[in-house]
Amino acid sequence: MSDAKFFQRGKIQELRLELNSDKKDRNYTRKKQTLKKIVANMTMGNDMSSLHPDVIACMSIPVLEVKKMVYLFLINYAKAKPEMAYEAIQTFRRDVEDPNPLIRALAIRTMGYIHVDKVTSCLIQPLRHCMRDQDPYVRKTAAVCVAKLFMQDRHLVENAGFIDLLREMLVDSNPSVVANAVAALTEISERSDHIQLQLNMSIASKLVTALNECSEWGQTYILESLMFVVPQEPGDAEMLAERIAPRLQHANSAVVLTAVKVIVYLMNYMSREEDIHSMCKKLSPPLVTLLSSGPEVQYVGLRNILLVIQKHPEILKNDIKIFFCKYNDPIYVKMAKLEIMFRLASEHNVEQVLSELKEYATEVDVDFVRKAVRSIGRLAVKIESTAQRCVEALLELIQTKVNYVVQESIVVIKDIFRKYPNQYESIIGVLCENLDNLDEPEAKAAMIWIIGQYADRIENSDELLDDFLYTFLEETVEVQLALLTATVKLFIKRPTAGQDLVPKVLKWATEEVDNPDLRDRGYIYWRLLSTDVAAAKAVVLSEKPHISTETDNMDPVLLEELLLHIASLSAIYHKAPTTFIPHCKPRFLIPSPALRRQNYNAGRTLQHQDSYSSLHNSAQYQQSQSNNMRSQRFDGDDSGNGGLDEFVSSPKQPQHQRLSYHEQSFEQVAEASIGNQEYYEQKINAENPYRTDTAAVGGSQANKGGGVDLMSFDL
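User: That's the sequence. What structure does it adopt?
Assistant: Structure tokens below.
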């Protein structure tokens, strides 16, 4: 029978009478029904707290279902009415010694949920006893209870020795107990300022052995804990990754993504390219399989894939067809697939990708079409051999006269002109035919840039700019800046055509606008033109830096951090967790002799905070900094004082030293990477003003010689 009938507003007096009824109640059926009504009313938001004496009286009933509902009642109201929990303490003590392991586990779990000081103090001894209980269900419940207790009173957990008990549970004979102990230790490590979980290869091997017998969520917990393993010897990472690889075939997407995260992490400690290539091959099929799930799981998978292929693009280079959009894909999935298609595009598959993008550009969803058109332009910039075909495709789209398609096409064509100067200027006439369709600031600014850049080739460029100038004061700053520069370019290239426009624009820019950037640029142009036209020409018409799609790549430091957070919100937001989770402890790659010699500069090597604090005070570090500054000062050419000038002009900021891993020992690399700790902490604190944990001030304490008290334990 359905329990929906219980979700009706009940009267307190009637419920009390039913609970205290003297009628014969075989198997406590009536009390169960009444308690279900009370719980249903609690769920609907009705206040049932006045029934607490009557509900607590039911705690003595030796029926698990009754106890569950009574404990749920206590958890719900104990925080607001602590005296209610006081009355139940004796019953809790009896229940944690009950012969039934389910009741023992239920009692210890409920006490962990009740955030009342007196209940917490009474929890210590029973919890310690339950962590050594003969029944594995009780032990695994007690392990999670320690993590809950840590959130209430971390000092109590540390002083009562629960951390050591959890460590002992890592070698428990029951895999579920091991999984819960690992989950508790990981949670405590993430939340504590001075406890850092570190697992050695021996414990890691035992944890991997327990994977096969764990539930899917237990496997996720164990895999997550392997992120705290730091391979020290060559071959450690390879062996561990091979043993984890079967998890990639799991049906649960959380297990698959967590296994991917661990393997990508371990690849940083692999020395041979063949092993890394082999692992990349094994990562492809599970990532592709994720795209056969529902749209929500697909999106999560796509956002994680986008991170992985930026570090290891070879993983999915032959599977680009998997990312072609389907007609019934949600828009957020299509957008994510488009970005991955662009990143995987190469000279071998560009024809297929371009054909798909042209098809997408005729869809009905405006945002999707815009991104498709922009991707065609980015493809031209990325792969030179296909630029001609991309330009032709953009011209075809412009002929459709669809407003937003035309405007997006003009925006990306500007980038193509910059990438390939003097190659595709023949299409300018087609662009000028569509000036009336421009109503977006970015498209207007792009078209104005094209007119100014090629003012000497467009016969009526002065008339076109004059048309734009009619609404100069009403335009956005982006368009105003473009108009100002384009007009000056016109005057320099064709003085006769631009002599009437320049004074007018400069007067507007310097006297009638409030934006300081626009006003300052106007003054600079005015003074250049009035003092030295040749200098103005050299400045305004200087060679533009070449553009490339590398600017779309994520910052390497951020990418390294996000790869340590695959299968989390950070991987979906593409933001470091410290930017949106207060007091979050950042993750780093810990240096070890097995850490792969990469081409990243050593100042960007990521580490754990305890490594920063300990090495930052060392005399070796101070000597290393002195040597680096000395070498930077005299590393110039032999002529004059080039090296000295370079040193003098360098800014006083935390140094991101570019030390090659091939040229430095492990200790030197570690020391050099420490130098950015204060800078990194300042960056984190600036992005996250709510972060006030001791890790943020660890650097200053270390500098004073006090250090940070770390309870980092190595298992």
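The longest strand covers residues 197-198.
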